[in-house]
Amino acid sequence: MGPVLSATEIRDANTRYHDVAAEHYDSKWGIDFGELGRSQVSAKVRKALGHEPGHYPRALEIGSGTGYFTLNLLRAGLVGQATCSDISAGMLETLQANAERLGLEVHTEPADAERLPFADASFDLVLGHAVLHHIPDLPRAFAEFHRVLAPGGTVLFAGEPSRYGDRLARIPKRFATTVAPLWRRALRARAAGQSAAKESDAALEGVVDVHAFAPGELARVARASGFEQVRVSGEELLANWFGWTNRTLEATAEPDAVPWAWRVYAYRGYLALQQVDRRLLEPRLPAAIFYNLMLAARKPLRS
Ligand SMILES: C[S@@+](CC[C@H](N)C(=O)[O-])C[C@H]1O[C@@H](n2cnc3c(N)ncnc32)[C@H](O)[C@@H]1O
Q1: Helix and strand element counts for the chain (H, E)
Q2: H or E stretch including 271?
Q3: Of 7, 147, 196, 238, which sits most exposed with the smallest number of CB within 10 A?
Q4: CA 134 – ligand 1 centroid, Å
Q5: Three-state secondary structure along 94-119?
Q6: 86 alpha carbon – ligand 1 mean position (Å)
Q7: Beta strands 123-129; 149-161: pairing state
Q8: Which residues contact 216 (CB under 8 A, 6 or more apart)?
Q9: Packed helices 89-102 and 68-75: angle between N→C axes, nearest 10 degrees
Q10: Is 70 near ligand 1, meaning CB less than 6 Å away?
């Protein structure tokens, strides 16, 4: 176990880690701003809400990174004016470059989720993807989401690691670490060198991820902040196992030594298994066993 860090140290580590990650973030995670990204993000919003999304005139994204959610939602026509906030200025610079390339208008604002520099009741939708697990004081952050939302507004988060799903994902990671030498030999891929930069990156990764959630915990923190109609659901099981196996294998080789055909196989396989998860497993299995949790809730019209 690593040292116990203060909330300030966790926030600083998040800023540094994501500032450095910003440049290669989209290629590392296969982030798409075309038809695929649009349909992925729209499907996640639909799944989190449990019904077709409406139109949100004013949206605020928390921990928006390079814009995966908001830029795709703008292109899908689901949001009007978009504000993107993040603790990492580096991520927001990449987001602005992506928005310019796509011809989209978005306002960016560096901000910690626990202290939002926005007026009360100024948004109809507060959303985020893969960010809650980085935030040290979640009740404080949820109080801020509630404050900046207009009465009747929606809060929506997706891509949050579930505690049990995270434990299950250790199985494919361990398996991949064991078979990696054989995999590299089969693909004639050179083993990756251990650089100081990589080691410090891996160490920081352990610091920036501060939570994995049980579905009930996420629901409780939302309710305690005053939200109603709270809904927590799970997504991705097989796709995630497949993804973690491949990412763990790939991390053991030099990036330029991993053949393109392998990358195509890994990407297409992931997308195909996402469909299997979506159609067969997600409607039938409990949220807790999936790798990702999603939360949607509403701020009451009257408090
Ligand atoms: C895993 S990335 C996800 C980025 C983006 N939402 C996506 O799905 O591609 C997490 C993001 O949360 C941001 N973040 C971490 N801690 C934060 C905090 N306390 N307040 C606001 N943003 C934070 C990071 O800088 C990073 O951009």
Answers
A1: 12, 7
A2: helix 260-276
A3: 196
A4: 7
A5: HHHHHHHHHCCCCEEEECECCECCCC
A6: 6
A7: parallel
A8: 232
A9: 20
A10: no
Cβ 91 under 6 angstroms from ligand 1: yes
Minimal-distance CA residue to ligand 1 atom 8: 129
Mutation test residue for ligand 1: of 16, 24, 114, 131, the one with most atoms within 8 Å of CB: 131
Nearest Cα residue to atom 17 of ligand 1: 87
Q: How far apart are CA 99 and CA 25, in angstroms?
A: 15
pLDDT 10s digits, 139-152: 999 999 999 999 99
Quote the strand ranges of the chain, DSSP E.
56-62, 79-86, 107-110, 123-129, 149-161, 228-235, 292-298
In degrees and rounded to multiples of 5, residue 29 shows phi and psi of -105, 10
Please tell me what DSSP assigns to residue 67. Answer: S
- Report how far apart the first and last C-alpha atoms of the chain are (Å, whole number): 43
134 CB near ligand 1 (under 6 Å):
yes
Express each pLDDT in 55-83 by its tens digit: 999 999 999 999 999 999 999 999 999 99
